[in-house]
Backbone:
């Protein structure tokens, strides 16, 4: 074979691989679009990307999850989904290229990923039916069929030419001269060969460099274009219908008018909110309130059909309550600061809001529940969310007189969907992973020995009271104030259910100096603080620590967030010009 012929052949091989990769991408696209549409008939959470993403979250080591939250914040779920799509894209390309050589194997690979998606969907904690597998299975079948067909268009002309290739009556293909096989485009027909119009390649087939007919260009382009257009339409329709599926929930939220609480929150004391630039507002808006959970799709629950079941050990009278029944119960309103256990020292995952809801202890007492200190057999309350999350709280803590709530409202509005609508738990003094169950639908009384909730199974602590913490909000790290100016060092400190007694600031390795505390709202809310400092030239490290009402001072020892929350002093480095 001449150099030119070899070069042309290599080009043809690369072209075939590229077209195979394109076929794989189209097959993957059609599979996801089909699955999206089928999930409308099942539930949005059963679509492959959501199911596989949820399964990945469930199986990711706690340290990796913590790293993702630190790096990507509340965008961690978006990053995960984009990562899954990127991996699927690469696998689709690989399967498409493989199918050009092994057509059935490549198509079978698409089916295999359908099996993976089906397993992920049915193994999720919130899965209640084998029908959750249908979107992945249907998508895989469509994708595999499309890949098989498109690759067939790439091989169509080649098969046709081979089927029509003339043969000498007295020679087999293996007996033909090597030159006739490798350079058929230059060689004349062998002596005695029979020619006929049937041996001419189809006009739709593109000639290949070895003399055989190539791919069915027209058939491939038509099929690929049609598949892309149909998949786009199907995917958009599925996305639209899934979005519309939450309209009943949205309508139910819009109809809610929160009644006046029987016990309103005391007026916020004058001086609780400092007028210092860049310090965190005393009250955190719903929009700015942090969100850390495992839900790739925010559940949209219709309040009219929502029910909460209370059952388990020590429950003398099992109870199922509706949202309307909760609204008719005595409501209380409280300002409570929440903090996430994934919050690093100086991190942003803490916020203060005004909550309205039913006192959880009252509801448990109606069911005959007693805390362990009064002879109750259950020491753990397991709250279950509609998305399958399980969160365990100490029964003693939720019944010790603190304002533990089944919250219905946040900052004067029904709960936002992202923060647990229609009902969530709020327990002052406990990290969210052991108290703040969003989208709650079930409460079971049990024991810590009998059951490990979601996070405990992943090496987090069973019990986790919030640690005394403080944070510098201003100046920001690497700020460059002017020498001789008065720099207002300010921030927030929190020790829910104990309260903050004092905050101290240190410049470099100097003595600790007491900061000015804003007025205290309640012991369940954070406190703002400030410290005016006369800036001197050079680089400086500003450090803060807090002391709570029990006399415990924030420890200097740095610990990770796992298993029960980070500890250590927060500091910022600045340069004074």
Residues:
């Amino acid at each position: 074979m001449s150099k030119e012929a070899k070069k042309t052949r290599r080009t043809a091989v690369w072209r075939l691989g590229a077209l195979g990769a394109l076929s794989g991408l189209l097959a993957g696209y059609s599979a996801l679009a089909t699955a999206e549409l089928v999930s409308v008939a099942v539930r949005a959470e059963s679509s492959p990307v959501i199911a596989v993403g949820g399964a990945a979250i469930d199986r990711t080591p706690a340290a990796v999850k913590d790293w993702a939250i630190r790096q990507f914040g509340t965008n961690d779920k978006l990053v995960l989904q984009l990562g899954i799509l990127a991996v699927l894209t690469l696998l689709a390309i690989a399967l498409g290229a493989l199918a050009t050589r092994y057509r059935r194997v490549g198509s079978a690979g698409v089916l295999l990923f359908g099996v993976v998606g089906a397993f992920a969907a049915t193994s999720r904690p919130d899965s209640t039916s084998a029908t959750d597998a249908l979107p992945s299975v249907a998508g895989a079948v469509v994708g595999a069929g499309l890949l098989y067909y498109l690759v067939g268009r790439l091989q169509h002309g080649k098969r046709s030419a081979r089927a029509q290739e003339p043969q000498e009556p007295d020679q087999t293909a293996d007996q033909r001269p090597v030159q006739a096989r490798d350079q058929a485009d230059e060689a004349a027909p062998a002596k005695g060969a029979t020619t006929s119009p049937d041996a001419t390649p189809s006009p739709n087939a593109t000639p290949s460099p070895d003399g055989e007919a190539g791919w069915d260009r027209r058939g491939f382009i038509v099929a690929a274009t049609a598949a892309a257009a149909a998949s786009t339409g199907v995917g958009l329709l599925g996305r639209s219908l899934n979005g519309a599926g939450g309209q009943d929930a949205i309508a139910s939220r819009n109809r809610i008018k929160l009644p006046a609480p029987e016990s309103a929150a005391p007026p916020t004391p004058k001086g609780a909110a400092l007028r210092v630039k860049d310090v965190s507002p005393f009250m955190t808006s719903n929009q700015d309130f942090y969100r850390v959970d495992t839900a790739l799709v925010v559940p949209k629950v219709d309040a009219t059909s929502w029910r909460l079941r209370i059952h388990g050990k020590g429950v003398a009278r099992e109870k199922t309550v509706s949202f309307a029944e909760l609204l008719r119960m005595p409501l209380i309103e409280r300002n409570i600061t929440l903090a996430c256990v994934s919050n690093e020292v100086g991190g942003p995952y803490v916020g203060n809001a005004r909550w309205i809801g039913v006192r959880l202890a009252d509801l448990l007492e109606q069911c005959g529940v007693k805390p362990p200190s009064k002879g109750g057999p259950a020491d753990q309350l397991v709250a279950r969310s509609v998305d399958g999350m399980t969160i365990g709280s100490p029964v003693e803590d939720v019944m010790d007189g603190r304002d533990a709530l089944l919250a219905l409202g946040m900052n004067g509005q029904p709960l936002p969907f992202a923060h647990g609508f229609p009902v969530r738990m709020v327990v002052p003094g406990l990290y969210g992973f052991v108290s703040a169950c969003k989208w709650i639908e079930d409460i079971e009384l049990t024991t810590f020995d009998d059951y490990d909730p979601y996070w405990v199974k992943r090496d987090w602590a069973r019990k986790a009271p919030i640690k005394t913490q403080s944070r510098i909000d201003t100046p920001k790290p690497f700020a460059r104030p002017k020498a001789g100016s008065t720099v207002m060092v300010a921030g927030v400190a929190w020790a829910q259910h104990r309260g903050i007694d004092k905050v101290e600031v240190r410049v470099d390795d100097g003595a600790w100096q007491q900061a000015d505390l804003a007025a205290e709202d309640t012991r369940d809310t954070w406190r703002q603080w400030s410290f005016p400092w006369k800036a001197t030239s050079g680089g400086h490290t500003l450090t803060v620590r807090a002391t709570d009402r029990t006399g415990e001072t924030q420890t200097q020892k740095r610990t990770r967030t796992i298993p029960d929350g980070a500890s250590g002093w927060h500091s910022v480095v600045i340069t004074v010009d």
